[in-house]
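Work through this:
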Amino acid sequence: MSKMIFVNLPVRDLAASTAFYVALGGKVNEQFSNEQATSAMFSDAIGVMLMTHDHYRDFTKRRIGDARRDSQALFALSVDNRNAVDATLTRAVAAGGSADPNPAQDRGFMFSRSIEDPDGYVWEILWMDAAAFAGTPETV
């Protein structure tokens, strides 16, 4: 079995969060989704588990933080080309996200913008020209 990454996020409104993550490019995996959680898959190996606060508390005894107030992590999701950065943000804003809580970054070989989900989690949507690094792994 290949390695997988699941980002588990407590959310206030499961339906609103599900709509946002579908607009961001996730596909709902019905096998692992119910009234307490949604599994949004971004690839065969990367998934985001959205959980109601009550369900999330089944996995931790720690207090659920407020992502709108405190930075807890930085998430990045790559897209296929530079134009897809803006297109992804447009879809995510229409689904309840807030564009550009952090400044856009344009470094020529890499372009990124950020989007805040309905719970305050910030995702960087980025495109990187992998050819710019061909033969120079020390620059990565």
Notes: The chain has three helices and nine strands. Helices lie at 14-23, 53-56, 82-94. The beta strands are 5-11, 27-28, 37-41, 46-52, 75-78, 98-99, 105-106, 110-116, 122-128. The longest strand covers residues 5-11.
